[in-house]
Design a protein that fits this description.
2 domains, 10 helices, 4-stranded antiparallel beta sheet, Jelly Rolls, Arc Repressor Mutant, subunit A, 6-stranded antiparallel beta sheet, single chain, 10 strands
Length: about 280
């Protein structure tokens, strides 16, 4: 099958890939195997997916569900090509996610897909935007959120919101201080969770509940705030400020600064001429 796979981001127990397939009606499907648990968001095209759980037609907005160690087959008899954001989870990592989803019953997917659902649409749009903007740092959180949302949906789990405990608040406060200290470098969600002795998904959910935003959102706000202060107080080059505050790409910094601050870094600085 004519498919190209580009890994966008990865970590201990997970990775996400951009998969583009150009197969058509004349290409014979062949059997492949899921090495890990897979949740693949279809972002373009259609194809037939046959797995142990059954056969389904996949279209944009739907989620392909794959169980670790099982075989599957994809066919394109109704049209050529498709594109997916494919999230993969090692069994032990997926087990920890399932354990953190209130009401989740089992680790194994019983259906081959989830159809396009309004409740999942904003999350899938966020993931596709991250792919297009090459926002690799966002994918650790996105992978957890997509896996947990999928597990909750297939389990018909009803979220149970409990007030954060004092211990949870302390954990989040410690994580906030760590992010502030290391905001100019890579900050791993898994590392933050390990330091609080919780699973990554539990930590993500608790942090969001206590802080009102995710760890990655807090990291971005911290970086942008520091960049704005530097723009106000120094004559350093905008590119130097971007890299010093943790952004690896100038265009990404410009785009994010404009989205949050309402204007470009250059225009922001121009409003505050140095004395």
């Amino acid at each position: 099958m004519a498919a190209t796979t580009r890994v966008l981001a990865s970590g201990a127990g997970w990775h996400v890939a951009d998969v583009i397939c150009t197969a058509g009606a004349g290409d014979r499907p062949f059997e492949e195997a899921h090495q890990d648990f897979c949740v693949a968001a279809v972002t373009g095209g259609t194809f037939r997916y046959r797995a142990q759980q059954g056969t389904a037609m996949l279209a944009p907005g739907s989620l392909l569900l794959g169980n670790s160690g099982t075989c599957y087959e994809c066919g394109h008899e109704h049209g050529s090509g498709d594109r997916c954001l494919s999230f993969h989870f090692r069994p032990a990592y997926m087990e920890r996610i399932v354990a953190g989803v209130p009401g989740a019953r089992a680790l194994t997917f019983e259906a081959p897909r989830l159809p396009p659902l309004p409740t999942l649409a904003p999350l899938l749009a966020e993931a596709e935007a991250a792919r297009e903007m090459a926002d690799t740092e966002a994918f650790e959180e996105l992978s957890l959120r997509i896996a947990a949302a999928t597990v909750a949906t297939v389990s018909n789990a009803t979220p149970v919101r409990r007030a954060p405990s004092r211990r949870d608040q302390k954990r989040v406060a410690e994580a906030v201080r760590r992010i502030e200290l290391d905001a100019d470098g890579p900050v791993s969600l898994s590392a933050l969770a390990d330091e609080t002795a919780t699973s990554p998904y539990h930590f993500l959910r608790t942090f969001r509940q206590v802080a009102g935003m995710t760890p990655y959102q807090f990291l971005l706000r911290t970086r942008l705030h520091r960049a704005a202060v530097r723009l106000r107080l120094s004559n350093d080059a905008i590119s130097a400020i971007a890299f010093d505050t943790g952004f690896n790409d100038l265009s990404t910094f410009n785009r994010r600064f404009r989205r949050v601050m309402g204007e470009t870094p250059g225009n922001y600085r121009a409003r505050w001429p140095s004395g």
